[in-house]
Design goal:
310 residues; mainly alpha; MetI-like fold; 2 domains; 2 strands; 78% helix; 1% strand
């Protein structure tokens, strides 16, 4: 084989698409490896330690009385009667908050998807609740809105002749849902507003020319177009709200059917000081969250695929 033939073979090898793709894959994997290793160390090592703690009899009130118990903590967690009410409270609070946030978010998105003086200022003000820290938002509502003496809601009740309501004690579930709805409505609004702005204006103009009214245009054109965005908002909102802790700890302290999985874990770890049992509750909570997140992500992937095929 001559030198010319060797050079030709080397040139073809260097430009072979399969070799180029393998080289790009190795480079990408090498660049991503440090981040993946850091993520594993940051998340999986503490989780493995938690699994180890969950197999131990370890109460901080009796630090010397510590030993291996196997799955006893899991049996206690599943049979104590506290886990299933917490799961029910988590599902109820999440479902109500996501549904109300979605409805109010859709309403505000429709109002903001039009030209009017001060539109930019209105959008900025609408986003503000989502930018406030959850603990600060819960404190604002607890003292500025729900308080029986200085709260705005009870001030309105007094001037209208209605009875004063102690929201956090008389209606704890409603109080938590109101705060979460107020905070996550901007989140839903942003997603739905992006969907509204992505509508084909030519289709909307054609509907107006054909004589379709506002309601028919909304139900037959806008809502089907927003389906993908609604599903994304519901899935992401559910994954975020299912982990909420601050409003429950500040407003109700888990009373009145508001003891979610996050608060139950806190109660076992920092009030009962039972490290082993708290770790078992934590592992159960993580497993349930992974199941919900897996279903949500698979559904989200199908939504994206369906949207891409359209």
């Amino acid at each position: 084989m001559s030198m010319t033939d060797v050079d030709t073979v080397e040139a073809k090898t260097a430009t072979d698409p399969r070799r180029v793709k393998k080289g790009e894959f190795r480079s990408a994997r090498g660049l991503a490896a440090p981040a993946i290793i850091f993520l594993i160390l940051l998340t999986q090592v503490p989780f493995l330690v938690t699994i180890g703690f969950s197999t131990m009899n370890w109460n901080l009130l009796y630090p010397q009385d510590r030993g291996f118990t196997g799955f006893d903590n899991y049996v206690t967690a599943l049979s104590s009667g506290a886990l299933w009410p917490s799961i029910l409270a988590t599902v109820l609070i999440t479902a109500l908050s996501v549904t109300l946030s979605l409805l109010f978010g859709l309403l505000f998105a429709l109002l903001l998807d039009r030209k009017f003086p001060g539109q930019a200022i209105a959008r900025t003000l609408m986003i503000t609740p989502f930018l406030i820290m959850p603990a600060a938002a819960a404190l604002i509502w607890k003292y500025s809105m729900f308080d029986t003496n200085i709260g705005i809601l009870n001030w309105l009740s007094r001037i209208t002749g209605l009875p004063v309501v102690s929201w956090s004690t008389e209606h704890p579930l409603a109080s938590v849902v109101i705060v979460l709805t107020w905070q996550f409505t901007p989140f839903m609004m942003l997603i739905l507003l992006a969907g509204l702005q992505g509508q084909d204006k030519a289709i909307m103009e054609a509907a107006q020319v054909d004589g379709a009214g506002t309601w028919r245009t909304f139900t037959w054109i806008t809502l089907p177009h927003l389906r993908m965005y609604v599903e994304i908002g519901v899935l992401l909102g559910s994954v975020i709200i299912i982990q909420v802790f601050d409003p429950i700890a500040i407003l109700t302290k888990g009373t009145g059917g508001t003891k979610t999985l996050a608060y139950l874990l806190y109660e076992r770890a920092f009030i009962g000081l039972d490290v082993g049992e708290a770790a078992a509750y934590g592992v159960v909570t993580v497993v349930l969250t992974i199941i919900v997140a897996t279903i949500a992500l698979r559904t989200l992937f199908k939504v994206f695929m369906a949207g891409g095929s359209r």
